[in-house]
């Protein structure tokens, strides 16, 4: 990140994991690849569901593209709405192994990093824009402790001294075809998610100061 | 119902209720109005969210159209998948008033009717077809005790001596635009629901004997 | 049931099933065995989690004891409150095998029985009494399609011509010790459940006509 | 905290809030007041549900008592198990006003504090001990953004340079009497919670190095 960020937006999606054959996060960002939003070119990149290697790939893509905005997207099977993540925490605690079989428990992501980073995205303004457009969205107070949080924390750690580049993380529900195999599970079609991400990118590129909207949790 | 049923399928949707400005059940069935499925013409009709009047309108439509298949569709805000209802029970117990302000408590729908009717639809075959098509669906063991169950019970009561006509009820989730106003609520787009209903109608018109698939609940 | 019912209350609980090592329904009713409530002696009996055999045991106990009130109690792992069941339906649809390995799918419980029976208990009055006593309780619109519903339906079928005997079914949550093995699962201690059942029995023995309290479900 | 910590454990509970007439966190810690656990005297203190004032009261109690262990306890209405909180974040975002009417949105708790602090408690060892004792418990990845998180963050901030003193936060479910007013809500009796806290305190006083047990969340 020695160079000036250019008019590129990096969106990342993940490989399938946990027994799934697809990952809607990749489908959703891939659909936006090559589009232009607010004068910025969208580039979609794929990340493996692996502790460590996911961050290597992410940092490589950032180095190569020098984007001015990075939004990493991941699947949150069981959640019902697009989740704008507020905070990444400095711990890996894997309930299930990653795609290489690694299962770290209570290990820091960055040995000397702080306990957490807040998102660099204007998530309240994004929330308002998505809801106004009829797209179900919510603020999430935790991105978990698996590869998604790992990538989110690693992203914010990589950008900690690069104030010109905004970054953050968005969780999305199962696609309907996945939910069809999980009785009772909620879902959103990739097209709805793509519309939501398009809007989220536009807000992140144009809203300097975040909106002041209560969207916290009592616990 | 003195005449022979003809090659018509009646689909009903409801008016908005409970503070909503639309009802996705009407959007979903209206989209199919006029289509032809398995040689049958689809006719969509609108029902009020009113104890009593909803059934008058339903019986009128059945009398007028003499359909060979009737599927009533209703909104189940909070459910995540298309719910194929198994059973209608002979009781109104309204947690909230209907659109005229009526709020019956523990009153029978048909004074001399049986405690319940099972659906006339091959819901297990429908379930299998929907899931195979990647559309999230489930069997539901209760349609509640509000206007949806009222219409479902009234439908089965009206058809009790008309074995040539199949009938049943399907609950659907909020549309995404509704869920955008209900933090955390699941949703399905009307287009996915319409695809699901199209498939459900095709199965109901062609599958004589229901499939034998375990889809019960331990409680 | 040729004899007059006497001043006995039969409470039944179940054997463990589904991998559990205990069943809180048995613990809860066993704790009341031998007590006297409103001049009636409580007798607790144990039922196997088996389609068929559970009903044989239940009918035998009814024949032997000639109770004036029968409440069957079962575990509903995942539910959070004491569930007063409204209706039993005439179908077995087992998601998991019973304790003998039997797994009926969409088979009637009573070949010539009606689709459903409503409970014989004053469940709204019971609900009000439990809540007033600070015991979490709710009306449930479905008892599922497993052995609990099987026993509930069989009970009401056995009592269909015996108006002097009241019967019904109550589902209860996991005990805390069970929930400790199910991350996130709700529970209630057997002592709270026993207090609730004691109260429920007292109401069933003294309230002739049920209360009129809205406690239905919109779906 | 200029003095050496002595053999005292400070447990705090909260005032009622959000329309409740009691707060089970206060009932649970009050029950332990004056007990001795592992040679330490338990002192229970009450905190107001107020941004700011809650922390003033907490710091005062710490100054006065010089405890070697501080566990703050709060109500998480809707959760089903005892929640051992992993992390406190540096933000107030109040969905509902506190008991003085204050409703901060996205304001830092400590102006120059880090984004988050991890708990100082051996929560995995506590989790194992609670489950082994048959008490339902779980690790929570978020304490929300309301007064509970405010107190948790403020506690860890106050203890940041005092390695001899362990601190952390535990969320607990509604008491049954509260859940009786919230249809479907889970609960745990104060006696079960008190047993759990007693055990948690004993573990925190005796286990130096936390256990290595996977208890994370994929999202």
From TrEMBL, chains A, B, C, D:
Residues at the catalytic site: 85, 148, 171
Source organism per UniProt: Lysobacter stagni
One Pfam family named in its UniProt record: Peptidase_C15
PANTHER family: PROTEASE FAMILY C15 PYROGLUTAMYL-PEPTIDASE I-RELATED, PYROGLUTAMYL-PEPTIDASE I
Family the entry assigns: Belongs to the peptidase C15 family.
PROSITE patterns, per database record: PYRASE_CYS, PYRASE_GLU
Predominant location category: cytoplasm
Catalytic activity: Release of an N-terminal pyroglutamyl group from a polypeptide, the second amino acid generally not being Pro
EC number: 3.4.19.3
Compartments in which it is found: Cytoplasm
InterPro entries assigned: Peptidase_C15 (IPR000816), Peptidase_C15-like (IPR016125), Peptidase_C15-like_sf (IPR036440), PGP-I_bact-type (IPR029762), PGPEP1_Cys_AS (IPR033694), PGPEP1_Glu_AS (IPR033693)
Superkingdom of source: Bacteria
Name the UniProt record assigns to this protein: Pyrrolidone-carboxylate peptidase
Assigned keywords, A-Z: Cytoplasm, Hydrolase, Protease, Thiol protease
């Amino acid at each position: 990140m020695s160079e000036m960020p250019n008019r590129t937006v990096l969106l990342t999606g993940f490989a399938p994991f946990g027994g799934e054959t697809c990952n809607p996060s990749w489908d959703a960002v891939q659909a936006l690849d090559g589009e232009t939003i607010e004068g910025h070119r969208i580039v979609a990149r794929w990340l493996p569901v692996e502790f460590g290697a996911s961050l290597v790939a992410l940092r490589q893509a950032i180095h190569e593209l020098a984007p001015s905005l990075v939004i990493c997207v991941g699947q949150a099977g069981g959640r019902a709405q697009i989740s704008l993540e507020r905070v990444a925490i400095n711990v890996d605690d894997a309930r299930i192994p990653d795609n290489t079989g690694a299962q770290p428990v209570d290990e820091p992501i960055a040995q000397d990093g702080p306990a957490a980073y807040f998102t660099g995205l204007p998530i309240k303004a994004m929330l308002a824009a998505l809801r106004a457009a009829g797209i179900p969205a919510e603020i999430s107070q935790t991105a978990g402790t698996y590869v998604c949080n790992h990538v989110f924390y690693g992203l914010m750690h990589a950008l900690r001294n690069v104030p010109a580049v905004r970054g953050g993380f968005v969780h999305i529900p199962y696609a309907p075809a996945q939910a069809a195999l999980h009785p009772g599970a909620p879902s959103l079609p990739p097209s709805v998610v793509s519309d939501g991400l398009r809007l989220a990118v536009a807000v992140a590129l144009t809203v300097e100061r975040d909106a002041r909207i209560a969207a916290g949790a009592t616990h």
